[in-house]
Each structure stands twice: as C-alpha cells, then as structure tokens.
Design a protein that fits this description.
The protein is 69% helix and 6% strand. The chain is mostly helical. A 4-stranded mixed sheet has the order 3-2-1-4, with helices on both faces.
Length: 355
C-alpha cells in the first residue's frame, strides 16, 4: 500500500542545502548579473569616452590614410582585417576585464564561491525531446515568459521617457560642429543606457529576492523526509536507544563488579562518584580508577560501596577532576598524588585493617 503524499511544510535541512549546493543548485538571478555588467559597461564608457574616442579616431585616420588610397591587394586585405580585429581587442580589453570582474563579483555576491562539477556534467535526460516539449509548455516557462515581457515593458518605458527628454536637445546639436555633436550624442546614449540599466538592476534585485524565496520553497521537505534524513545521518533512534541501553547495562555490570573490590569511593558529594583501587604490595605505582559515574550512576556506585563496606570520602575537587580527566583503568595523575594520599590516609585511620 503506497504511502499518502505529504505536504512539504518543513524548511530544508543544512544537509539537503549542502547537497543541492554541491550539485550547483543555488538561488541566482541572471537579470542581476546582466544589469551589473550593463551598468559597469556604461560607467566605463562614460569615464573613458575621451580616451576611447581619441584612440578610435587615430586608428580610423591610420586606416583611411594608409589603406583606402592603396591599390586593392588580397594580402593587404588580410592585414587590414587582422589589424582591425587586434586594434579593437586592445581598445576594448579593459572593458572585457572589467566585465569579467563584475560578473564574478555579482555571482559571488549572490551565492558565494562555488565549484560544482556536477552542474556542468552532461545529462542524457536533457536530450529527451518529449521532456523538452513538456518544459516549453510548463507553468515555469510561461511564468518566465510573462516576466520577460514585463521586464521589457518596464525597461523600454524608462528608456522611452529618458530618450524623449533628450530629443529636443539633440535637435539643437545639429547646428554645432561635428565633434561637439558626436560627443553630445554619446553622452545622451550613455544617459539612456544608464537609466535603463538602473531600472534593470532594480528588476534584478527583485528577481534575486524572488529566486531565493522560490528556491527555499522548492527545497522544502516533508516531515517524513526530515525523519528519514535524521535516520541516515544520526542513525535509527531505536538502534541508538538500544545502544545506549546496552552501554548502561555494561557499565552497570562493571560497576557491580569493580566497586566492591575498590579501596575508596570519592564523591562530589551528590553529582559525581569515582571508585579507586590501590594495591601497594603489587607493581602498581598509584591508585587506579575502576569505576565512575554521574548523577544516577553516582548514586548507584555509593549504594554498592555502602553495601560492601567500601569507604566513601567526600572531596569535590578530586572527584570532579578524576571524573572529567581520568578514564576507567587509568592511574591517578601525579598532580593528584598528594590529595589522593590524604584520602587514603583518612581511610587507613578509619580502618587500620584495610591494608
């Protein structure tokens, strides 16, 4: 019998988010990246327009004076094209570098540094034409289409308003010198692109907020998925409970076996109890911790000690140190020799027949 479908009402666990990130699934907005690059390009051209204009003028002058008047030659045509491509690349190289930096920065700002080889791994399922047709007519595709139309409408409206405001000024420029006309037209074009890019950036920020919301909604889990993940990461609760119960049983068996043979039990007095065994006639250099426990286990150790006439001595500092720093089967460390010796001396005075 199939399990009924459950609503995904739980937030995604850190493990699921980490798994999705390794696959390259992160909330991101392509509009935000494009808007940042557009504004960076506009800013670059605005600041460097004089230098770019001068270099472009020099290259055009060189072209007209050296190639136009020369007789046609196929080899010379190749040189012209090669020089034009190389000159354009050199002229725009700083812009290319700037756009790479801005694109990298905008991606890092959205989801941090990410290297996900699985995201670029080819998938055979993507070549399925039926799946491709389903995606074309899916709700997601229609939503993206409506969003694109809205973006074009908003950006186009802003560009139209700004361009209309520059129209009258442009008409007056035709009575000025060509150089002045060219510069003013470039400034007007950059102004239009700036306002269009700024509007696009606002849209990109809104889209980024939406993409993060949609991603969190997509990553939601059912209560059963959360439980199953906890079982995979932390283990089955029933098995963990059985292991803890078994550990307590083994510890209790050890306590019942070792405490009756102990020399003394040092207590906190209520929270900790540590059983020490000392055999001076053997090769043992110092007392050994044979059992220890906290709270309920500490009370059980004291009960067993009283049942078998094992002395119980209260020493808060020694009991806490032994409980936290000395494991069962280990000897008392040298820094506690004096304190433990005083405890053993007290026990010896109480029962001279102990040793």
């Amino acid at each position: 019998m199939s399990r009924p479908a459950q609503e995904k009402t739980e937030k995604a666990t850190p493990k699921k988010l980490a798994d999705a990130r390794r696959k390259g699934q992160v909330p991101k907005s392509a509009d935000f990246n494009a808007a940042m690059c557009l504004l960076a390009g506009v800013l670059y051209f605005f600041l460097a327009r004089a230098i770019i204009g001068q270099q472009a003028q020099e290259k055009l002058s060189h072209y007209f004076f050296n190639y136009i008047s020369a007789p046609p030659n196929p080899e010379r045509l190749i040189d012209i094209l090669t020089g034009a491509v190389y000159g354009t690349f050199v002229l725009l190289a700083p812009l290319y570098l700037l756009l790479v930096v801005i694109a990298t920065f905008s991606n890092v700002a959205q989801f941090g540094f990410l290297f996900a080889p699985k995201a670029i791994k080819p998938k055979v399922s993507k070549l399925n034409p039926i799946e491709g047709v389903k995606k074309i007519f899916s709700g997601r595709t229609l939503f993206e289409l409506a969003k694109s139309i809205l973006k074009i409408t908003l950006v186009g409206s802003v560009v139209f308003v700004v361009a209309k405001g520059q129209y009258t000024q442009m008409l007056k420029l035709f009575y000025g010198p060509p150089g002045y006309l060219f510069n003013k037209m470039i400034e007007a074009l950059l102004l239009i692109l700036f306002w269009g890019g700024l509007t696009y950036l606002v849209i990109g920020i809104i889209d980024l907020i939406y993409q993060r919301y949609a991603f969190q909604k997509q990553m939601r889990m059912t209560k059963q998925e959360v439980k199953d993940e906890h079982k995979q990461t932390d283990g089955d609760p029933q098995i963990k409970s059985w292991i803890k119960r078994r550990q307590r049983e083994l510890l209790m068996n050890a306590v019942q076996k070792e405490v009756p043979e102990a020399t003394v039990v040092v207590t906190n007095p209520t929270h900790f109890a540590v059983a020490l065994k000392y055999q001076p006639e053997g090769d043992q250099n110092a007392p050994v911790v044979v059992a220890k426990g906290a709270d309920a286990m500490a009370r059980k150790i004291k009960e067993i000690a009283l049942e078998h006439d094992v002395p119980v001595q209260e020493n808060k500092e020694v009991a806490q140190f032994l409980y936290y720093h000395v494991e069962i089967g280990q000897e008392v460390p040298p820094e506690l020799y004096q304190a433990v010796a005083e405890i053993l001396a007290t026990v010896y005075r109480l029962d001279r027949n102990k040793f």
